[in-house]
Amino acid sequence: MNLTAGTIQHLYVRREVSPYGWFLGFGREDGPEVLLPYGETGGERLEVDSEADVFLFHDDKERITATLRKPLITLGEMARLVVADFHPSFGFFLEMGIGRQLLLPLKSFPAERKNVWPQQGDELYVIMKQDKEGRMLARLAKIDDFAPLVFRAPSSWMNQWQEGWVTDVFRDGVFTLVEGGVLGFGALGYINDASMVHPLRIGQKFKARVTQVREDGRVSLSIRASKEAGRVEDADRILAFLRERPGGAMPYSDQTSAEDIQRRFQLSKSAFKRALGKLMKEGLITQKGNWTHLKSAEDEAGDSSVSATGESE
């Protein structure tokens, strides 16, 4: 048997050596030993010839060490861990419950898309593995890792708002794990870029509406409200933007490119056009060329022009 980092082992307490701690092994006499430092017992005292379940890890000097603290993840297991810190040369350090952190290497993330990298406080689904020297490392969980754990989303989820976490990012959207609650571990989902109000990053928690429950039990999600509710919300946002603009006008219309609309309003072009249509129908705005104007602002400008010429209405 081996003293393997990342595992919980049932060991015998062979002897106590002050001022270090207790030395433990698989048997009472023969075989490798590991130190359980006094500082890793949480104040508990062990008796020689007793037994203890300990978690093994490498200390700051790369020595295999034992602790009585209970880890949030062990070798080969999956867990959702909080991002505690970041180092630009190494990667993200995840809190694992033993007073030390687990490294998730920087190469796990697309170098050209730093906007999707996690931030401190985000939660990542990872699996613990080892590097070539036997030290603990994390890797991002993939779809195949979730497959034996997730459940098929119920049809009752349709049009409901659910919470979840982003697990991976692709060119046209993000994969997610939707919170299962009392139902279990969770269900797999996907959010298309067009269904986002703003880009989502790996590890970010979100709340989204289920737009489809697929035959395979996965769900399609949208950060946006339904079209009708979304039209009202988007229209209010555009109206507020116009009211803050000089002269109540903006250089955006239904002729503006989808890229410019997405960049400025975080809306798809179709959603933007629906919102403009609502405002025009209500008589709140008008369009001239590539510009959109508040109707009240345009009317006031017209009144001022009439007064300046000395003409009555």
From TrEMBL:
Bias (Polar residues) ranges: 304-313
Keyword DNA-binding set for record: yes
Keyword DNA-binding: yes
Domain S1 motif: 159-224
Swiss-Prot/TrEMBL keywords: DNA-binding
Ranges for region Disordered: 293-313
Family (UniProt): Belongs to the CvfB family.
Protein name as it appears in the record: S1 RNA-binding domain-containing protein
Native source organism of the sequence: Cohnella boryungensis
